[in-house]
Amino acid sequence: MEYPTILIENAVNEISKLPGIGKKSALRVVLKLLKEKPEFTDSLAEAVQKLRNETKYCRICHMINDTEDCTCITPRRDTSVICVVEDTPDIMAIQHTAQYNGLFHVIGGLISPIDGIGPDDLNIQSLIDRIQNAEYNVKEIILALSTNMEGDTTAFYLAKKLKPLNVKISTIARGIPIGGELEFADEITLGRSIVKRISYDLNGD
Amino acid sequence: MEYPTILIENAVNEISKLPGIGKKSALRVVLKLLKEKPEFTDSLAEAVQKLRNETKYCRICHMINDTEDCTCITPRRDTSVICVVEDTPDIMAIQHTAQYNGLFHVIGGLISPIDGIGPDDLNIQSLIDRIQNAEYNVKEIILALSTNMEGDTTAFYLAKKLKPLNVKISTIARGIPIGGELEFADEITLGRSIVKRISYDLNGD
C-alpha cells in the first residue's frame, strides 16, 4: 500500500506493530489522530510513555503495581494461599470472579523450549523463597495456568519442584464450562471431566 | 473493569478512544507495551506526535502532504480534471485503481445538518477559486462522494454551485459491483442501475 506521506507511513508502521491492529486499522487510527486536536495525540503519547516508564512490579509477587509495595503485603487477604498465574490479566480475571481472597504470584511466562524459555526465566525461585519464609506461613499453592502444552509442562515442573516444601499443591478444576452443552464439548475435556469426576457430598450441609 | 494500576487505567482509557479499539484490545496493547523494551513505546509515541505536529495540507487541493506543495502542482498529471473527494483515504483508494490521472480536491467532510456541518465548513470556496483561475484551465469536475444522504446532499449542493462556472460536472458510476450477483443486490442499487443503464456502443472500437 502506498501512503500519501512519509509521516503517515511511519505512524502506520509503528501502530500496526501493536497486537490486533493491522495496517488498515492503523491507517484509521492515523486519520482519527489527524482529525482531532493535537492535545488528543499528546495525551495518548503521554499515557503510553508514563505507563512504560513508571509502572513498577511488586518485589514479592511480581504483580504490576503503581509502587513496589502491593496488596500481597496488606493483611486484608488470606496470606496462607498463593495462586500462581502466568501474567497480570489472569489475576484480573480471577479477581473478577470474587471467589478468591488469597495472594498471587506472577511467574511471568510459561516453560516453552521452542521459544527458548526455561524455568530459570520465570519467577520460580522467588516463589520458593516465599514458601520457605516462615513469616508468611504459606499452606497452599494453587496453580492457575493455561491448559495447553506449555501450561501443563510448567505446572508439572512446579509441582515437582514444590513437593519437598511441605505445602498443599492444587490446580484449578478442568471440565465442561458452566452452561456448556455436552454435545459440543471437545473429547479431551469431556473425557477428563469423567475421569476426574467430583463426588456429590450428600451428607454435607 | 478494575485495572491493577492507575497508569494502566489511564493508558487503556486513552488507547480505547481510538477507532476500532475497545477496552479489551486496549488492555492487550498495554500489556504488549509493558512486555517490550521502553524503546518500542518511545518510537510509537514519537511517530504519532510527529505525525500530528508535522503533517501539512496542500494549500491548493487540501491533500495531506509532507510539504505544502503537492502533486497537484506537478505537471505529470492531467490538470484539466479535478476529482472531488471527502478525505484522504478516498484519494488513496482511487489512486490504487490506476484508472485516474487527474488532480484531486479534498473538501474535508460532507454536508450534515445533524452534525452541524454546513457548506461553509467544507473546502468549497477554494474549489471554485481553482476552477475560476484561468491558469489551471479546469474542464471537468468528477464528484466521487459516498452514496449516503450526506454524500448525495453534498453532491447536489456542489452541482448547483458549480453549474454557472462552465465546467463539465460528472459523478462516479453507481450500480451493481463487478462480480456482484443480481440476486443479492439491494433493490435501490438494482433499480438505479436499470434506470441509469449504459448503452452498448456497437460501432465503437
Structure description:
Two copies of one chain form a homodimer. With 205 residues, chain A is α/β, with parallel strands linked by helices. The first copy, chain A, has two domains: 6-54, Helicase, Ruva Protein, domain 3; 73-172, 3-Layer(aba) Sandwich (Dna Topoisomerase Vi A Subunit, Chain: A, domain 2). Chain A is 40% helix and 12% strand. Chain A contains seven helices and six strands. Chain A has helices at residues 6-15, 23-35, 38-54, 88-97, 125-132, 149-162, 187-195; strands spanning 56-57, 64-65, 78-85, 102-106, 140-143, 168-171. In chain A, the strands form two sheets. Chain A has a four-stranded parallel sheet with strand order 4-3-5-6. In chain A, strand 3 (78-85), helix 4 and strand 4 (102-106) form a beta-alpha-beta unit. In chain A, helix 1 crosses helix 2. The first copy, chain A, is globular, with a radius of gyration of 22 Å. Chains A and B meet through helix 1, helix 2, helix 3, strand 2 and helix 4 of A and helix 1, helix 2, helix 3, strand 2 and helix 4 of B.
Specify the overall morphology of chain A.
Answer: globular
What percentage of amino acids of chain A are in beta strands?
Answer: 5-15%
Query: Which bin fits the share of residues in helices of chain A?
Result: 25-40%
Largest beta sheet: strand ordering of chain A: 4-3-5-6
Q: Write down the secondary-structure element order of chain A.
A: HHHEEEHEHEHEH
Instruction: State the CATH class of the largest domain in chain A.
Output: Alpha Beta
| Structural class estimated from helices and strands of chain A | alpha/beta
Sheet with most strands of chain A: 4 strands, parallel
